């Protein structure tokens, strides 16, 4: 299909084309109260103001629910369900399309344009959801294999359960932050000499601070406790997708993770992008997941072959010198489990989910060094240095480093479906007097 053309100026190459319409939470200099908006080109459309000025006059479906656009999170809008998300998105597209059937709503309404449209550079974005629970999975098989080789060798790189279920752990929802929020280097227990006969840790700032290139998916539908979400219905329970950086303290993790897994090494910060791309906008970019040569149990079997997304992902690192280097270019199709499978597995016990719950994909990596989504992989756990522009090197992140993740679907510069960026800068650890 040819790209949708708009009467509104959407810059060529924008992640937020008319084919996208992602949702987020904004505030502005004139109104500090967070509320719902959509991104369109290099602007945000304030849906609270839009609704208050009869913007939804031609969409009777949403009129009884317009209060959701005045909320400080997307939870209430998400809870309305996928059919409502779809009609709202399509209606907003129809408002901006070149031959809009409703020109009086916005195209010829200069007063409302002035009130409701804000340049992205002038707004503040906020965490899009009130996140009750956060679960991080391990669905990037290349990452799982490479890390397994580093720590266990190639013959036992993947654990026996890996291809039979989406491995995951319960993360810390309270430390999920929106893009642009600084990340403080954590302190913790570190085993400086793993080969020593007597294993005694020291207390120290993390020395192996790392990134994890991930996607996150938000839940929009609750299930009663004791009632699993069937795999055939799981997709309808998912609102949309964000970029994610699940920052990791590798040395703290190495000491603490046996026998119960990550704890303090993962609970200090997880960054997500500000704009949530609806599942419907991503539908044209569905593709096959990585091949799984095991027969999965029936509750995880999907009818559709295409269950993950063809999203081009990139990680850039800017150091204190101001020099920027591209660290990673990979693709989100490097997942062996889909978000519907993660949700079906998560709830098979009857675990209740709520709108706003967040599912992380796990680190997404390709097979070559330039496709790997963590420094742990690229530096082989600190054995080699990663070359940066300007002659700098990294094994792990240093204070002042800024990590910038971007992701985009498609190649038509007039119809990209992108996520913008997920950015975080490392601040020094607290100096604790113990």
From TrEMBL:
UniProt pathway annotation: Amino-acid degradation; L-phenylalanine degradation; acetoacetate and fumarate from L-phenylalanine: step 6/6
Chain sites annotated for binding Mg(2+): 246, 266, 270
Q: What is its EC number?
A: 3.7.1.2
**Cofactor(s) this protein requires:** Mg(2+); Ca(2+)
Give binding positions for Ca(2+): 136, 212, 214, 246
Residue span, Fumarylacetoacetase-like C-terminal domain: 160-423
GO MF terms here are:
fumarylacetoacetase activity; metal ion binding
For this protein, the record's Pfam families field holds: FAA_hydrolase, FAA_hydrolase_N
Output the InterPro entries linked to this UniProt entry: Fumarylacetoacetase, Fumarylacetoacetase-like_C, Fumarylacetoacetase_C_sf, Fumarylacetoacetase_N, Fumarylacetoacetase_N_sf
Q: Output the Gene3D superfamilies linked to this UniProt entry.
A: Fumarylacetoacetase, N-terminal domain (2.30.30.230), Fumarylacetoacetase-like, C-terminal domain (3.90.850.10)
Q: Does the keyword Hydrolase apply?
A: yes
Which principal EC class is assigned to this enzyme?
hydrolase
| Fumarylacetoacetase N-terminal domain location | 19-128
Annotated catalytic residues = 143 (proton acceptor)
A single GO BP term for this record reads:
homogentisate catabolic process
What keywords were assigned to this record?
Answer: Calcium, Hydrolase, Magnesium, Metal-binding, Phenylalanine catabolism, Tyrosine catabolism
Q: Which reaction does it catalyse?
A: 4-fumarylacetoacetate + H2O = acetoacetate + fumarate + H(+)
Q: Which superkingdom?
A: Eukaryota
Name the SUPFAM superfamilies on file.
FAH, Fumarylacetoacetate hydrolase, FAH, N-terminal domain
Q: Which residues bind substrate?
A: 138, 152, 253, 257, 363
Q: Which family does it belong to?
A: Belongs to the FAH family.
* Record PANTHER family: FUMARYLACETOACETASE
Please state what the protein is called: Fumarylacetoacetase
- Organism of origin is Pleomassaria siparia CBS 279.74
